Amino acid sequence: MGIVLFREKGRFRMKDPFGYIAGLLDKKVSRKKFLAMALSSIGLFLLSGFRPHKASAAAPEGSTGRLKKAIKTDHDLIVASGSDPYAMTVKAVEMIGGMERFVKKGDVVLVKPNIGWDRTPEQAGNTNPQVVAALVDMSLKAGAKKVKVFDITCNESRRCYATSGIGPAALKSGASVYHPEDWDTVKALFPFKSPMQGWPILRDAVECDVLINAPVLKHHGLTRLTLSMKNLMGVCGGNRGIMHQNIGENLVDLTGFMNPELTVIDAYRVLVRHGPTGGNLSDVNDVKKVIVAADPTLADIVACNIAGVEPSDVPYVRTAIQRKFGLTDPSKADILNITV
Amino acid sequence: MVILRRLSQTVSCGLFIYVLWSTTYPLAGTIKPAMLFKSDPLMMAMVSISQRVILPGVAISIAMLLIAAALGRYFCGWVCPLGAAMDITAALKKKHAILSDNRSAALRKIKFFFLGAFLILALAGIQVAWICDPVTIAARFVSMNMIPALTWAADRIFIFLIRDCNMHGAISDLYHTLESNLLGVKVFYFAHSAAILSFFAAICAASFILQRFWCRAVCPLGALYSLAGRFSRLRRTTGGCVKCGRCVNSCRMGAIKKDFSYSQGECILCMECIYDCPSHVTKFGFSGASRPPVNTESRKNFILILLSSLFTMGFAFPAGRKRSPGGVIRPPAALEEDHFVNRCIRCGNCMKVCPTNGLQPVMFQAGPGGIWTPQLVPETGYCEYLCTLCGKTCPTGAIPEITQEQKAVTKLGIAEIDRSTCLPWAKNKECIVCQEHCPVGEKAIKLDTYAGGPAKPYIDERLCVGCGICQNKCPVQPVRAVKVSPRNADRKCI
After folding, report:
1. Per CATH, which fold does B337-407 belong to?
2. Of A18, A206, A229, B288, which is most buried by a Cβ count within 10 Å?
3. Residue B423 touches partner A, C-beta closer than 8 Å
4. ipTM value of the model?
5. Taking the domain B414-485, which CATH number applies?
6. Which of A52-61, B169-178, B341-350 has the highest mean predicted lDDT (pLDDT)?
7. Quick check: pTM over 0.80?
C-alpha cells in the first residue's frame, strides 16, 4: 500500500497515508465553518447547471408561434414618399388606420428593426433610426405598456446598436433596448413538415403582444433583396447560416410562425449593390419611401417593385406566391400612395 | 498608518480592477487602460531600451521613479496590486517563517540578478522583462481570470433565475440593464487561462511559505524601486530601542536585521513595525536619521551580480534570423514580428478590449518567445472591421493606434475557401453566408454564377483584409470551409 515520505527534523520518515487522511477527517469543524462550506458547495452545485432531468432544463420548451390576428385596416398598403422618414412613417401608419388598431392599452410591443451591421444610417445597412423612433413613439402613444427594440446582430452587437443610431434613437423615445440572449429561446413547432421544425426562436419575440417588423430595403447577395421576411431571421438563434440552404421555404415558414401584425419597410435610403453590408456611399440610392402594410407578403412584393426587381427572383417572395401565403396579388390589393 | 496603507492598497486595487473592467467597448473609462502600464518604469525602460525608442508616456514612469527616490519603495507596500494579493494570501496564515540575516541578504540579491539579466537582454534587443513584471502579472490575472469568472458566475445565476425559475419579468430587465452597463453582453473565454491563473497563484502561494517571497527575491520592478528608494530621506528611526526583537520577527520583507539596523532598499514602508514596537520608539520621518551605512562589500557584490548576468547574453536571438509568427494571425497593423514580440508586454489589454473575444493569448504557436502575445482566433471571434480598440489600449505601440480609414484597408491575412467542403462548391447547396458577412465595401468575396447552380464564393485577394468574419460565420462546422491565414499581413517595420 501507499506510503508517504515526509521530512521531520531533517530526517526522512514514513507515514501511513490512511492514518494521515483519517487524522485530517478527525479535525473539529466549527458550526460557522460548516455552514459556510455547505452553503458554498450548494451554491457551486447550482452554478454548475446540472439538472436531474436534462430535457426540462437544457432544451427550450416548444411553441407553435404567434397567432394571426384579424385586424381590419383602411387600406391594404400605404406607400409614403417624402423627405422626412419620421413624418412619413407617422402619416403612413395613420393612413392605414392608426397605431391604435394594432396596439391595445397595456400591450407589450416588439419593434424589430434590422440592426445587423456596424454601419451608419447614411450607409443604409440598417433600418433608418427615424423610422424606428416613429414606431416606438406611436406604440407608446397608443398605450403600450412596454416597447422592446432588439435584433440578433451579425456584427458585434454594441457597435451595431450605437453606429446604426437605432440604439440611442429608440432609447430616447422610451423603448427598452437590449441585447437578447441566445439561451432564452423557444423551440418552433409546426403542424406541418417544415425545414424550420425545432428551430430556436427568441422567447421575447414570440411572447410579445404586437410584433412590428421594420426591415430596410436593400440588396442581398443570395436573395437579391432583404425584405420583411428576411428581417425575421434576426429573432432566430442557432446556426443561422444553415437557413440559407432552402431559404425560401425557411423564411415563409418563419413568417407564418411569427405573424407580424404590422410591416414597415424603410426604403428611404436603399443599398443597391454589395449588400447586405454595403459601406460605400456610392452604392446608396435615395428612394425616399416608406411602405406600411399589415400583410408581409404584399409589403415585400411592393418593395420588390420599388427596387425594380422581379418578385419571382427573390426566393422567399417566390415561395410565398407559389404557396399563396397572404396577399400575393398587388393588382387586387388596395394600395394608396401618399406624399408627406 | 497601517489602516491608511490598507486603504491605499484597497483603493489602488479597486482602481486597477475598475480600469481593466472598463477596458471594453466603447472605452468610456476616465483613465486610459494604457496608463496602468505607462506608469511602470520597468516595462517602459526595458521596451524603450530593447527597441531603441522613447515610448510616449515614458515621462510618467520616470515620474514614478522620482517619487520613489523621494519616498522610498512605497509602491510595493502601498500600490502594487500583486503585493496586495500576496498580503491577503499571507494573512491566511498566522505564523510566518523568519530567515536569518545571511539567508535574507542572499535571497534579496536574486532580484537584482533578474533586473540585470533583463537589462542586458534589453540591450541586446530582447525584451523578456514581462515574465517577472508584477503589474502585468496582476493585469493578466484580472483581465483573463477574474473578470471572466465573475461575469460567468453572474451570467449563470441569472440564467438559473430566468430560465429555470422562470422569472421573466423584472429580473430579466435587471439582467439586461446590468449586461449593457456593467457585465458586458457576452462572457469572455480565454485560452490558457489556467496557465495564467497558476502563474499568479504560484506567486501568491509562495508568500504563504515566506511572506512577500516574490518581492524579496524575484521582483525586478521591486529591485528598480529599491535602487531608487535608497536615495529617499524618509527613514526609520529607533532611538531608545530596547532591542526586544519584535519588529525583526514581524517584518514581512525581512528588512530589519538582527542588530536592529534596517536595509532601506528593502523596506516597503508597510509601517507595521511602528505598531509592533512595545516602547513606541520606531518612527518614520524625513529628518534626523542618517543614511543607513551601505557596506562596500554589498556594493561589490551587487556589481558582481550585475556582471554575472552577462551570461544571459547567450540566449540572445541569433542575429539575422527573422522571427516568424508561424500560423498565428496577429492583431491589425501589429508591428513586424521581431518588434512586435519585443514590444508586447503581455498586459492583455488588447485581448480584454477585443469586442468579439477574438484575440486570445498564444501559448507556443509563435515560438517560445511569443508566449501570451495576442493572436486572432476567428473560431472564437473575428476582427470587427471598423474597430480600432486594440491599438488604442496597447501601452507600448506593439499594436499601433490607427484610424478607422486605415483599419479598413489593413490586412491581417487572407481568407482561403476550401472547395472540397464549401457547400456551394462541394454539395451544390445555396449558402454564401461568407459573402453576406464580408465587411469590405466592394465585397472581397465574389460570386461565381457562370457555371449555373447556386452562386459559388471565391476570394478576391486584393480586397480581402483577413478579418475572419467569414470563417467565424461559416455554417460548415466544426472544420470551416473558409479559413484565414496570416499570409500577406500588413506588418509595419519600424
Report:
1. Alpha-Beta Plaits (3.30.70)
2. A229
3. yes
4. 0.86
5. 3.30.70.20
6. B341-350
7. yes
